[in-house]
Specification:
By secondary structure, the protein is an all-alpha fold. The chain has a domain of 48 residues. The longest helix is centred in the last third of the chain and has 22 residues. The radius of gyration is 20 Å and the shape is flat. 0% of the residues are buried.
Length: 70
């Protein structure tokens, strides 16, 4: 969602990340203000996603040994 002021200049990863953070915070603020979700629900969801991602990363780090036939 980073807006380019100059079509010739590339948008840096830092700019994209900052824009994404601002966008996410704005959406969270609106959802909580409109009481669509509570802060507790948000935190529970964040914890769940973090746990699932950590579990997935840990699973991808497992070493698979292949026994050679002697």
């Amino acid at each position: 969602m980073a807006e380019r002021l100059n079509q010739q200049a590339p948008v840096s990863a830092e700019e994209v990340l900052k824009t994404e953070i601002i966008l996410n915070q704005a959406l969270i603020d609106i959802l909580i203000a409109k009481q669509i979700i509570s802060e507790e629900e948000l935190m529970n969801c964040i914890r769940k996603i973090k746990y699932e991602q950590e579990k997935m990363v840990a699973g991808s780090r497992k070493i698979v040994s292949v026994k050679s036939k002697s």
